[in-house]
Amino acid sequence: MFKQIILSIIMLSTVFSQVNIKFEKHILPNGLNLIIHEDHSIPIVSVNLWYHVGSGREKQGKSGFAHLFEHMLFQGSKNVEKGNHFKLIQDAGGTLNGSTNTDRTNYWEILPSNFLELALYLESDRMGFLLDAMTQEKLDNQRDVVKNERRQNYENQPYGLASKIINENLYPPEHPYHWLTIGTQEDLSNATLEDVMEFFKKYYVPNNASLCIGGDINPKEVKKLVEKYFGEIPRGNEIEKMKPWIPVLNENKYLTMEDNVKLPRIYINWLTVQHFTDDEAALDLLATILSRGKNSRLYKSLVYEKKIAQDVSAYNNSAEVSGSFGIVSTAKQGASLKEIEEVINNELEKVKLEGVSEKELELAKNETEANFIYRLQSLGGFGGRTDQLNRYNIFVGDPGYFNKDLERYKKVSVEDIKRVANVYLKQNGKVVLSAVPRGKTELKAQ
Amino acid sequence: MKFLKYFLMVVLIMGNLFSQIDRTQKPKAGKTPDFKFPKIQSLSLSNGLQVKLVEYHQLPIVQMQFVFGAGCSHEPRDKSGAFNLMMRLLDAGTKTRTIFDIADEFEYLGTRFSASTSHDGSFISILTLKKHLEKSLELTADILQNSVFPDSEFNRVRNEVLTSLLQQKDRADVIANKVFSKIVYSENHPYGNPVDGTEASLNSIEVNDLRELYKKYFIPKNAVLIVVGDIKANELKKQLEKHLSGWKNGNQNIPDIPPVEMNFKPGIFLVDKPEAPQSQIRVGCIGVERNNPDYFALEVMNMILGGNFNSRINWNLREQKGYTYGARSSFTYRKQKGTFNAGGGFKSSVTDSCISELLNELRKMRESDVSEDELKFAKNSILLSFPRLFETPAQIAGQIANLIMYDLPENYFNLYVSKIKDVTVKDVRAVSVKYLIPEKMSVIVVGDYKSNKNALENLNLGKIQLLDPDGNPLN
Q: What tens digit of pLDDT does each residue of A391-402 get?
């Protein structure tokens, strides 16, 4: 009943000792993707389930919905009482969690391997039979919990709402990345039970999900069990893929936010590219060259030599629909964001004009390659092997994309670095946010 | 072919009809798989350095962790933060390498080097690819023996730490934790001092203080090296002798940390954070040492009270009332007495209710036995979790580091299992009665004073004592 598509062994780069990530991929008749990754090192099993839906699918006025929904998936389903999802997993010595971003929602359990069937039972019950157990009371409770999550991680955190302002200015209101995944208090208040049901019926269907099971398991048995628990869940309507949409920004937007903070902080952001593109790799390496390590350009200049900044970091954040490049730096007491911005601009100009050295690129690549190996250590959890297999499967359709992914980074040249700096980190076309202590707007960048 | 396809489809449909399963019954667990705690091999080097090795061959990597028995409890009393500065500056230059040489060499190798300190000990962690083990060891050996702590780097890093102290005052959760430690430990005990020091103490530190601590405590006999990685004992020993045998021993012993007095400071302490949407709350007091015989019963008891998602505290305050994103309780165990506290971040308008609920949960633990179901759940969730706590090299090294820090025997993991199994409902009750005494708890609140003042006063926990973010009393 399963269609076997790939049986593949991936050899990671010859630069390193060879590493094999063995897996099989199958697709059930109802469209569920199943990836099996056998590894008997220790007697645990990881069950990792991705739904290809995130806050990018939300409609205006309904922000925070995908994430609120993630919470509802821990509230019990037809055959699992409220609280029992956690309880049964932990009673087995297991652990679990879930998370939501703009593009996807993931859920995972790690258990002693003899409890595999329990995890499949729980995951399939909430994929197939969630709505039977949905109540207004549960929704109200989790809405309150999420509002507290927002207070804790955004409102009551220094600089906590900076990303909200940045996204709102990088992206137009209709763009899927315009709003924060956590949503707004107002939209959360407005979420109704009908919204929950509709969202579930549309996106939480087997043909929009990828299930990766790894660890101390027998692949044949796993296939049978997955078929037993998930096979009867009906396929949902086809879901159209999200289309790339990178807005064009031809002006500089200077914004100021007052916050309960002691030190001002500057955020400079540009629009870049979607993930798994060649330029993403070059931008990632550029970010490393700019701010990773004591000898990186921005760190050395701002933090080490001029001592006007407490910290600086550069990152490229590419996702399914769009991407952005950011530089964030916190001013030391008495330093101004103006001078920090000037130093950053000068350093960027140097890269744009002269490029970077072969040595700098080599360091950045070595570090990237080592990270590819280090992140293979964990089987489960966020970023573990089963999570990575699902990520590759959902976004490029090939769970075993490790090698090709690494290849993207290895082939980046110093010319590429110079080119992407010029193409994306435009002098005219960025969002610059100054977060300053309340009442101290004179500390802003411009 | 076409026929076959139709045939298959029919089978598929039939299959579905017949595969309807009884979901009212949760599946039974299979046979419990064998799990053996990793085998620890012991080596010792010619300079006296003790080495613990666990072989791990799944990936071509090696994780090394140095555990030093000295930490910030061993710095001079008026120089709080010196040990932390010393650890932060370890890789800031040696006799032959500059700060940038070291940073670039590690980055070139893809090796991760980090150093940190705590009240009970200090740690250096090195994660490297197997093929770069030798080069990483050479660099580490240089750092262990020849760090020079350049004046200019000292001034720069001290300023960074001073700035980070300022930044911490933006964060309610950090303030709550620091103020809590300061309140529950008496002023003259090192556990009451923050690891990163205070503004005053940092300004009194000189670079020579760091050099002295380094010279005194960074000697082989005060350290144990834990290695978990893709390497065999004989090869490891050869490499370590080559690079570390020049690391000379000294005479300095590690002084004992003084015992903690059982002083309680009941009452309500508030750090004002005007208009904060949430209050960070800590309800707690002095707890126990890591080697206290009550340790096992406390582990089980806390699991039920506030140690997991389904615990009483989280269930009540998050899943029933929706007052918080998460509430928990925990014991921290140290060489001398650690702490107990319950708390989290709560919606500001229900600050008073959350405090009474937390205190009520403590009372309930004292006043009646936990159920057999709760006990079984707590024990299962501890005992069955073992395999996954020994997965990555860093996890394995961390587990062994705990044994070393607290002088626990190498067969401890097995001992732990049997001790947890032995815990009874009566034991849980006994430790609840002994340690969860609401009248002795300090209640720390970091939140909006104005809107909560009246409600907090009505809790009858005494007059609200207002503190600044450093935990000093305000008038």
A: 999 999 999 999
